[in-house]
Amino acid sequence: MLWRLRILSFYGLLSLFTFIFFLICYIPVTFCNVNYQIKYRIAIIFSYAFVWLAKICCGLKYEVEGLEKLPKTTSIVISNHQSFWDQMFMQLIIPKHSWVLKRELFNIPLLGWGLRMVKPIAVDRGTNSSVAQILREGQAKIKEGLWLIIFPESTKVPPDKTVKFKPSAVKLASVTRVPIVMIAHNAGLFWPRGFWFQQPGTIRVKIIGVIDKAEVEQTDVRILNEKVEQIINSEKQKLLNY
Fold first, then answer.
1. What's the rounded Cα separation, in Å, for the pair 97 and 87?
2. What's the CA gap between 76 and 138, in Å, rounded?
């Protein structure tokens, strides 16, 4: 009973904060000529508040390993995807970036409107045009100096399950000749697919390593995608034991 109350308190406070945030930030920047840098900072503030409320209300803490491995140059981040939490948290550790996400997220009241503000690459999953869109818009984002965060599983996957990685992220890295940063985490142990927390605890996020642009350029996309998939899934499995 107490655990349910903690979860409800999280969503209650998040809803209140989101509504106030919407009035103070979203409406002014939408109807005024505000540059992208300001919009981006506003989005980061919201993510900090989200992660902080999850920690305070539901005891969802986190530890990050390997921050020193992040390269200084624009890169593509490839991570496993287990929870809504990881979407929000990634914004706190990755340099100025954009996303590849499902267009349907725009339909979430208030939150979806906020996502539109930072202009991610919004794709209709399952359509034949999504790969071409990611390559086209992704190249433009990279040229702007933005990192890209991509979940190649394309959906939230339970911690003990694996799915084949879609090759779009690796293809984009090959075309743009940028490094690939590999990340694994175990957020799904505490907050699985959906909106209901499983248990309090400490989420482990591991920046596994970087595939430099020389290897990206020289390696076949299919082979490299299989390598990335194997490495991330292997690290994800290790994190199940924490």
1. 12
2. 10
State pTM to two decimals: 0.91
Both structure tokens of 124: 């209709």
The domains found in the chain, sorted by start residue, are 60-239 (3.40.1130.10)
- 183 and 146 Cβ atoms separated by less than 8 Å: no
pLDDT, one tens digit per residue, over 202-241 is 999 999 999 999 999 999 999 999 999 999 999 999 998 7
Burial of 196 (0-12, 13-18, 19+ CB in 10 A): exposed
Beta strands in 67-143 (DSSP E): 76-79, 97-102, 121-123
What pLDDT digit, counting tens, does each position of 3-54 carry? 888 899 999 999 899 888 888 887 787 777 778 888 888 888 889 999 999 9
Spatial neighbors of 124 by CB under 8 A, at least 6 apart, are: 102, 103, 130
Report the interhelical angle of 36-58 vs 84-93 (nearest 10°).
120
Q: Which of 86, 73, 223, 237 is nearest to 151 (CA)?
A: 86
By DSSP bridging, strand 97-102 and strand 147-150 are parallel
74: nearest Cα among 184, 205, 216, 186? 216
d(CA 123, CA 131): 9
Query: 105, 121 in Cβ contact below 8 A?
Result: no
Residues whose CB is less than 8 angstroms from the CB of residue 39 and which lie 6 or more positions away in sequence, other chains included: 29, 117, 118
